[in-house]
Amino acid sequence: MTAETDAARARETAHKTRALRKYEADFAPPAGDGGEPPLEVLSPFGPLVGRTRVAPALLDRLNAYADGLAAAGRREFLVPPEVACAGGAASLVAVIEDRLRRYVLAAEGVPARRIEIDRIWVVSQFAGTPSPVHFHSGDLSGVLYLKAPPPPPADELGKTYISGRQAGYLNFLTGGKQRFAKTLLSVPPEPGLLYTFPGWLLHGVEPFTGGGERRSLSFNARAETEE
Q1: What is the DSSP string of 142-209?
Q2: Whole-model pTM?
Q3: What is the reported pLDDT for 145?
């Protein structure tokens, strides 16, 4: 009876350990400040943002589909299953699932048992159009840039998102003005770059000036893991 009780307790402890491990930060290789002795700067807390690239062929297929709708004046539209699933192992759905599985493993240390994509849509924007700060539904979200406007003028790059920059950057925000903490991440639009992040993470896109189009593809998904 004692052996069975001990085994049950061991199983329960192992289950709790697996369930809680995803909240525990790792000590990633620190960056030194160059001083002597070095000051090691660790950044273990907060949400993770994944960044990868997609193949040019997939980018071309998605833009070929979106070009017609954008030319007809559509600024936001869903990606239908026949487009999302085209290409087999190189399809958009396959790429999203692969990147999300890798993100879940990196973020929580356990493989995803199931990835369910909720919806995929494209947003086409031109000069002066922002996307206000918002969050998405579901566990996970992602943004893939399909097109980007020309580089912004130097005077805009001298500003920040908070001071009203108009460079078309994607901005992730967590927390507020907190001393000794980084709470804002700004990334420029670059075709082929795919960002994955928690659906609850606040983000928004600032407007840009000049010509060109900023075209992005977004998605929401749910992930199930082994606790």
Answers
A1: EEEEEE-PPPPPHHHHTS-TTTT--B--EEEE-SSS-TT---EEEE---TTEEEEEETTSEEEE--B-
A2: 0.86
A3: 98
